[in-house]
Amino acid sequence: MPKENVLSKGSISGRFAWVDCCKAMAIIAVLVDHTNGILYTSRYVGRASYYSVGLFVLLSGMTHAALKPEKLTFQSRLKKVGLLFGQYAAACFLIVMIYQKFFDFNTYITALLSFNLQGPFYFFVFFFQLLLIAPVLATWCRYCDAGKWRYLFHVLTVLFLFCFSSVSIRYTYILPVHGGGKYLFGGTYIVLFYIGIVLGQCGLLSKRQDHCICAFAGSLLAWVVCVLSIDAGAMIDRLFEPYLGDGFNPPGIQYIIFTIISFMMFRSLFLFLEYHKDLKICSGAVKLFSLIGRNSLYVFMYHLTVRDWMTNLITPDTTSVWVYRILIFMPMLLIPVLVPSGLGLIKSNIRAVCGDVTSGTIRSRSNDG
């Protein structure tokens, strides 16, 4: 009997706190990667953060598996692309104003359309494409799950997408940007996106607390082994270099596996914390990381601007190395979180006040009548 289809159930109400927490771990890894050579020089620390973008793509694929059918149309995904592009355009405007101290329209339009104002903006180039093809991949995933040989179909689909990625990496060139943004559908990022859809379709979005601490211990061990076996993994990626590139960005076999292990580790950890939310330290950790995860897009777009600002204010010579690291890293993470959260709180309070005033006016008119 075929497994019940997650896509046919419609959207699951509310946000998944553990998904937002995993997004927080992904954006923290982005910040660690982008402070390489500034806050640390260890190659192991740097390599331990290379799951970052891949984890975002994997989680996006998973959440697409829970969307209602009307949200999985090309029109709805195009609307989503438009909303993201608007946020990206606003970020480009602010960053141009911050660095140049005035508005240069030509610089703004050039940077906006080339996606190279800052290095991380390459992400938008391929992610927009993944959003547009998401209805096709999700529908195919649903079709595979309806059959008797669904696991075989999923494996063959992943192999096909690897072959497609090889063609994309070798024969396409979208824009002169960093990493996967150069290639159609981000090269191998489309593989991670589809794997995320499959995992979401398998029910991993649903809370399963049973044995999560054992899953965390096992995945943590595997994660440490992956980090310590960088050179061995690099040998594998070198075998596929003629077909999949250098294996760094877009990720090769090593970092795709590393991303999936990282996902399993963080998922089991935060499900464990959610299960013990009666403990203040656990509930507090989940609330903090889910807040960061919900604002991870703002951290992604503005963290380099905050980093440049803080490194101009503080130098390593003026304080100890750990104080310097904290004074640089924490503003990079927290300022893009606190500013939009604070503005959102102010906006909600204004709406509440306006609503009270309107209700009072209506009641007053009713009494007069």
Structural class, from helix and strand content? mainly alpha
* Rg over alpha carbons: 22 Å
Q: What is the ordering of alpha helices and beta strands?
A: HHHHHHHHHHHHHHHH
Structural domain count: 1
Number of contiguous helices = 16
Oligomer: single chain
Instruction: Tell me the distance between the termini.
Output: 65 Å
> How would the global form be characterised?
globular
Strand segment tally? 0
**Approximate helicity band:** over 70%
Q: Biggest sheet, open or closed, and with what strands and sense?
A: none
Average residue-wise pLDDT: 88
Work out the strand percent: under 5%
Low-confidence blocks of residues: 1-13
Topology:
Layout: H1 6-9, H2 17-33, H3 43-48, H4 52-64, H5 74-100, H6 105-114, H7 122-145, H8 150-171, H9 189-201, H10 212-228, H11 230-239, H12 241-244, H13 253-275, H14 280-294, H15 296-313, H16 321-368
Overview of this protein structure:
This protein has 369 residues and is mainly α. The protein has one domain (6-297). The chain has 16 helices and no strands. It has helices spanning 6-9, 17-33, 43-48, 52-64, 74-100, 105-114, 122-145, 150-171, 189-201, 212-228, 230-239, 241-244, 253-275, 280-294, 296-313, 321-368. Helix 2 (17-33) packs antiparallel against helix 4 (52-64), helix 5 runs antiparallel to helix 7 and helix 7 (122-145) runs antiparallel to helix 8. It is globular.
Short recap of the structure:
The chain is mostly helical.
